[in-house]
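Sample entry (167 residues):
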Amino acid sequence: MAQAPVAIEHQFVTLGIDQEVFGVPVESVLEILDMRPIFRVPEAPHYLVGLIDLRGRSIPVLDLRAKLGLPAVPATETTRILVLDVEVAGRTLVLGLVADRVFEVLALGADDIEPPPDIGVRWRSDYIRGVGHRDGRFVIIFDLSRLFSTEDVVAIAYAPQSAQAVA
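Predicted structure, serialized as tokens:
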């Protein structure tokens, strides 16, 4: 008796920024933290919020809103920091990513994910791995290695370790 082909399923942690829903591969997520004090890094790029201490380890934290060109908003009780393991330019980095909220782990089959839309003009879509859809809702799936470009890695790697606390 032949077995039916097994549909490949991918799992994503879904997070919200403004009214949009994004997904990051579940295997990249190390932890999901409540918002906490962040230590500013002098002369850092605008999207690098600063550093957090995670069990004695300094973790750079990036503001996803700033990275996507969206306006800043104050942290709320639903703001979270996703600690991610990201491979960029041949280096594995542990980074924090500030999101307005985290929803769930969502499983999507290969048939549920489409390539980034072609809108007929150039736009910065290289960090979008695809667009998932299920039950009438869309999830923009990030390609984390492209979301954090080589220049980001250089900026983070050479950010001074001295800092001042912010709430």
